[in-house]
Amino acid sequence: MAYIAEILRQYIRLPLTPNQPRRADRRLAADLLRRQVPFAIVRAALLIASARRAFSSTPSLTPIRSLHYFLPVLDEIQQGKPIDPDYIDYLEKRLINASQKTL
Q1: Which of 13, 55, 58, 71 makes the best surface tag, with the fewest CB within 10 Å?
Q2: pTM for the model
Q3: Please, what's the b/e burial string for 43-56 (b: 16 or more CB within 10 A of its CB; e: otherwise)?
Q4: Cα separation, 23 vs 67, whole angstroms
Q5: Residue 63's closest CA among 54, 75, 72?
Q6: How far is residue 96's CA from residue 102's CA, in Å, rounded to a whole number?
Q7: What percent of the chain lies above the pLDDT cut of 70?
């Protein structure tokens, strides 16, 4: 259950996400655990999707309402080359600097 709690904690700490996860978010996190998706890959998807959104040129984006928003990036990562952990740490630092929330 620590896996599920940590995914949800990472999710709600991102910019433009809810302060509390929804029931559907909990179910998705449990499904990721059941599918044995490594936490590092889920974390990378959360940070990459958030960074793409935060640093896009599109003004006034609406809040992210569901953990499901990150699934396309998760699929992209799983089908592509491994991501450098230093790059993920860099994205996290950029998001921290750009956001009021602490990751």
Answers
A1: 58
A2: 0.89
A3: bbbbbbbbbebbee
A4: 10
A5: 54
A6: 6
A7: 94
